[in-house]
Amino acid sequence: MSAAKVDEVLPFPNVERGMGIYFDINGGYPEMKSFNGLHKDLSEAQRYFMQRGISEWSLSEDYPKGAYVQHIGKAWRAQAANAGKEPSVDEVWDECALAEKEIEELVKRKGHFYSQVNKQDASQFTFNDFGRRVWVDNNSPTTFTLPEISNINGSGQTITIWNVKSSAITISVGNSSDNISIPMSTVKSFKLMPTESVTMIVEQNNSWHATGDGMLKYSLLFRSSVTENGWGYQPSGLIEQWGACNVSGNGSVDGGYLNNFSIPFPNKCINIQLTHSGFSPGSVGVFSALVLNNNSQFRAYSSVGNVYPAGTAYYRAIGY
């Protein structure tokens, strides 16, 4: 470093091309203060590189593969030799992180990791939602669509959804060729019941892998409750329920006797049949049933109207 004092330093004068160094004073020699100024410029340049470590990117400079530069307050590494390729614009430059906070922000952004849980107001999930944890309330939509997997690079990206609505929501694939892998089966859509959560993970085979407590109802396959009013899971993923129910009716929709299934169908009841139980068909008529939208109750009807006391029948229902 220079030992010159403040009043002993002057900016070194510009030199015209081809003229050499020429001064009209001091017999053609520059002042010592000017040499001190030149030394100061070199010292400042050295300190700049020592303090910042990486030079600023230049539009006119050629960069070999592996070169490091600074640009718009960030560090970049060249993935290939290039010239005139601006970092942050051209993919030939890969962003680097040098400080702890920069590393944290870079990992969050590149890895799609987020620490906050936000409300989901849009029915369509996008790539920007990867890594997010969202919650759905009564003001949110009731149906949600996942991003199309064919437009996703790589695999392992996640979206976590928590339903705090008072009703179920439906989550569907973004393309008919995509699938959702649930325990023992694959589906195009599924219902997430109140208080349940699910984490959707991108797989490589055009499939989402669904995991979380919202999938527990599907993982209970092969389990059953074999009682008079019972239920059982079939290997295909279908759920069968059976039992005794009461039947009545006066011709109106609400006139049918309201019965409860042993367990709610997670998605839908697709068929229910009723048979007589010790009654003469002529006295109680033909039985029929209507499953309510909550998939946990059904109304049972008799074609002859009200049966008092309510006629008893057996039902068999299947759904998923």
Short description:
Pfam families: Gp53-like_C. This protein has 320 residues and is mostly beta strands.
Task: Explain the overall architecture.
It is a single chain. This protein has 320 residues and is mainly β. The protein has 4 domains: 1-53, no CATH class; 54-108, Seminal Fluid Protein  PDC-109 (Domain B) (Ribbon), CATH 2.10.10.90; 117-218, Jelly Rolls (Sandwich); 224-319, Immunoglobulin-like. Helices cover 13% and strands 33% of the residues. The protein is built from 4 helices and 23 strands. The chain has helices spanning 32-52, 100-111, 216-219, 281-284, and strands spanning 62-63, 68-71, 74-78, 82-83, 93-96, 117-119, 133-136, 143-145, 158-163, 169-172, 179-182, 185-187, 189-192, 197-202, 207-211, 224-225, 230-233, 239-247, 257-260, 269-276, 287-291, 297-302, 311-319. It has a 7-stranded mixed β-sheet with strand order 6-7-9-14-15-11-12, with no helix packed on it. Strand 17 (230-233) and strand 18 form a beta hairpin. Residues 54-96 form the Chitin-binding type-3 domain. It holds the Pfam family Gp53-like_C. It comes from Limnobaculum xujianqingii. One of its GO terms (cellular component) is extracellular region. InterPro entries: CBM5/12, CBM_sf_5/12, Gp53-like_C.
Q: Helices, strands, pairings?
A:
Blueprint lengths: L31 H21 L9 E2 L4 E4 L2 E5 L3 E2 L9 E4 L3 H12 L5 E3 L13 E4 L6 E3 L12 E6 L5 E4 L6 E4 L2 E3 L1 E4 L4 E6 L4 E5 L4 H4 L4 E2 L4 E4 L5 E9 L9 E4 L8 E8 L4 H4 L2 E5 L5 E6 L8 E9 L1
Parallel strand pairs: 6-7, 7-9, 8-10, 11-15
Antiparallel strand pairs: 1-4, 2-3, 3-5, 9-14, 10-13, 11-12, 14-15, 16-17, 17-18, 18-23, 19-22, 20-23, 21-22
